[in-house]
Amino acid sequence: EAGVVQSPRYKIIEKKQPVAFWCNPISGHNTLYWYLQNLGQGPELLIRYENEEAVDDSQLPKDRFSAERLKGVDSTLKIQPAELGDSAVYLCASSLDRVHGGRRNEQFFGPGTRLTVL
Amino acid sequence: AQTVTQSQPEMSVQEAETVTLSCTYDTSESDYYLFWYKQPPSRQMILVIRQEAYKQQNATENRFSVNFQKAAKSFSLKISDSQLGDAAMYFCAYTLIQGAQKLVFGQGTRLTINP
Is B43–A43 a contact, with Cβ atoms under 8 angstroms apart? Predict the structure, then answer.
């Protein structure tokens, strides 16, 4: 099966510019996650969707970050305006919960988008 | 709040030797999963091995095995017969069993394999 797809792989922007990242989860996976991974650190959750509903966005900086998952399939994460400190890797993951036949909370990750803010 | 700690920022091992990566975690829950993920330079997170907290038997996947000590909240990864392709960042992670919960990751250990 096709894995989690993310684009772009790399993005370089000037500070104060907007940027958007796109994620297409594994077909049929109802849960989608966006993680932020700073250099040399483990990923941290930004937002989790179950179908089209954001069920955990407590770590999303809502003054500049927004996300959507229309129709409960692919998702877009946006930053406006970007700051120097936003330079990081943005990972998307998906999973199928056990109610729908998923195995043991396994999350499948995409290759990430490396953002550099100059 | 749940936390995961990896106290070894870097480890190195000779090819074909055995190496153990350490991980401790803190939680008040009794039902959870623990994972080890591998992240090569391509940035793709790859699941290496998982452990259900309710299982006393340590998980094993080919050359990878864990030493799960629930009372001590310790979850180490042993890699036997290390290969050059094992070089990567390794992350220990925790999640609750109930529902599709977030993964809580440690800081990672960079593993180098010396030929």
Answer: no
**Centroid of chain to Cα A49:** 10
Contact between B111 and B13 under an 8 Å Cβ cutoff? The reply is: yes
**Min CA distance, B97 vs chain A (Å)?**
7
Select from B97, B102, B105 the Cβ nearest to the Cβ of A48: B102
pLDDT at B2: 82
User: For A105, which of B97, B105, B107 is closest by C-beta distance?
Assistant: B97
Q: A48: which chain B residues are within 8 Å (Cβ-Cβ)?
A: 100, 102
Query: Torsion angle, CA of A36/B10/B45/A98, rounded to 10 degrees?
Result: -90
In the predicted model, what is the mean pLDDT of residues B78-91? 97
pLDDT reading at A104 higher than 70: no
CA distance A101 to chain B (A): 12
Summarize pLDDT for A46-66 with one digit per residue, the tens. 999 999 999 999 899 999 999
pLDDT higher than 80, residue B74: yes
CA–CA gap between residue A74 and residue A4 (Å, rounded): 10
Say how far apart CA B83 and CA B40 lie, in whole Å.
14
